[in-house]
Amino acid sequence: MISIQREDVDISRLVQEAKHPGAGAILVFDGIVRNDDITEMELEAYEGVALRELEHIAMEASAQHGLLSVDIVHRIGRLRVGENILVIVVSAAHRKEAYDGSRFILEAIKEKVPIWKKELRTGGDRWVAGESKNH
Amino acid sequence: MSVRIRFFARFRELADPEIVTEVREGTSITALIYAVTENNQAARDAIFDQEGGFRRYVILMQNGARIETTRAGETMVADGDEIAIFPPVAGG
């Protein structure tokens, strides 16, 4: 499942579905809204392009790290502290491939996928600085 | 011919989420964005430097494909194009 969506995600269902016969490791990354004195976080995406990028990253990660399955769910809209922002579930035969593949996906998302976060604060809102490079 | 310009994140707040406009054949991406920000100094200042070049953090796409800002002046738009302009991404 590769998705950009407003609604929350059922992580336990993704884990259950990631239990392929050859899998020896399932790794879940759950990025959540941190309480940095914010009231909420607002996420925005260039949806068509972002979804295509996520699909490309999933394929690249599978090919490079031998993943058996990849699920990426990135949420958009207004989220409260503690809510899920990004869920990545990967399965692989061994832990190393699972850890490496999950990390690869996370870093690629931060660098390439057109999604932006804005922290909503009582003292004034602030866009989160991006990590991507314009080159 | 008609093209659509989409602004995201901070640029969306300064301009409109999207602008559909008519342009003449032979219009570059740079000229297009410069023209649509003509009456919006805040957006123009956020996107262009004092020499009229794109600021270093600006990212451009033409129909979903990245266009280097240094090449945008020689990249022409075509009828039906979607041009997107945004600051560095910050997902995850």
Describe the secondary structure blueprint for this structure.
The complex is a heterodimer of chains A (135) and B (92).
Chain A: E1 2-5, H1 11-17, E2 25-32, E3 40-45, H2 47-65, E4 69-75, E5 77-79, E6 84-92, H3 95-112, E7 115-120, E8 126-127
Helix pairs in contact in A: 2-3
Chain B: E1 2-7, H1 10-14, E2 18-22, H2 29-36, H3 41-47, E3 59-62, E4 65-67, E5 82-86
What is the structure about, briefly put?
Chain A has 135 residues and is α+β, with helices and mostly antiparallel strands. Chain A is built from 3 helices and 8 strands; from the N terminus they run E-H-E-E-H-E-E-E-H-E-E. In chain B, strands 2-1-5-3-4 form a 5-stranded mixed β-sheet.
Description:
The complex is a heterodimer of chains A (135) and B (92). In chain A, 33% of the residues lie in helices and 33% in strands. Chain A is an alpha+beta fold. In chain A, the strands form 2 sheets. A 4-stranded mixed beta sheet of chain A has the order 1-4-6-2, with helices on both faces. In chain A, strand 7 (115-120) and strand 8 (126-127) form a beta hairpin. The model of chain A has no long low-confidence stretch (mean pLDDT 94). The N and C termini of chain B lie far apart (37 Å). Chain B has helices at 10-14, 29-36, 41-47; strands spanning 2-7, 18-22, 59-62, 65-67, 82-86. The mean pLDDT of chain B is 94. Chain B is α+β, with helices and mostly antiparallel strands and 92 residues long. The longest helix of chain B is centred in the middle third of the chain and has 8 residues, at 29-36. In chain B, strands 2-1-5-3-4 form a 5-stranded mixed beta sheet. In chain B, strand 3 and strand 4 (65-67) form a beta hairpin. Chain A binds chain B through residues 31, 43-46, 48-50, 52, 74, 85-86, 106, 109-118, 127-135, and chain B through 6, 8-10, 12, 56-59, 61, 64, 68-69, 84, 86-92.
